[in-house]
Amino acid sequence: MLHVLADLLTLGVAVAISPIAMVAVILMATSGKGRTNGTAFMLGSYLFCIVFVGSLVVIGRSAGADDEESATHLLIDAVEVALGAFLVVMAVRQWQRRSHTGTPQWMNAIDGMTVWKAFIVGILISGPLSPKDLPLLFAASGRISQAELVVHEVVAVVLIFGVIGVMAITIPWLISVIAPSQVEMRLSGLRDWLIGNHAVIMTVLFLILGAKLIGAGVADLVS
Asked: Where, by residue number, does the polypeptide cross the bilayer (predicted)?
């Protein structure tokens, strides 16, 4: 199980490094809603990750993905290469948009969000609306599906992967819980930096992750 988690570590950290999600939690924290809305946002992100990955793993293993000679195993490798190519294309698009540093409109509505809306936004930003996270979650699901693990190990890997995926947004959330009076001082600079450098950060991430997925997929196909 440990070797699978080690293989997934890069993907999990990449999921965690989400400037938009981090800015959303920081905005909730600086508006005084870090303990409630921030918690709901984080739970939404975590639940989407483990349910999405877990569902794909069940489908993959039911189709025989853990058998190295199966067509499903090879298909997952091919999909991984395709996802890597998609991320490289997204890197180019992000670089072209690097001069757009304005605050997205949806961020202005965070102050008025209810707990349930924050929960839903956490789900959406962590998957359906994220061009970075969905390919990574697909890739992680494929890796777990292919691994020779028993059921309880699969469950543990999915749950731990979900924890890794929300590690970055737990930092501003913890600050809002432990030291709410220092939130503005500690997080306002990080918030502005993430907004201003979002495109460049995502460009670098997309390139590195795209290369990793292409390399890993091709290596598995030819081995």
From this structure: 6-28, 40-59, 71-92, 113-130, 150-178, 199-219
The domain total for the chain is 1
pLDDT tens-digit series, residues 37-48: 888 988 999 999
| Helices 19-30 and 183-196, packing angle to 10 deg | 150
Q: What's this model's pTM, rounded to 2 decimal places? A: 0.83
46-65 pLDDT, tens digit per residue, is: 999 999 999 999 998 888 77
State which residues form the domain around 131.
2-222
Answer yes or no: are the C-beta atoms of 148 and 64 closer than 8 Å. no
DSSP string, 146-183: HS---HHHHHHHHHHHHHHHTHHHHHHHHHHHH-GGGH
- Residues 144 and 154: beta-carbon distance below 8 Å: yes
Round to whole Å and give the CA distance between 203 and 17.
12
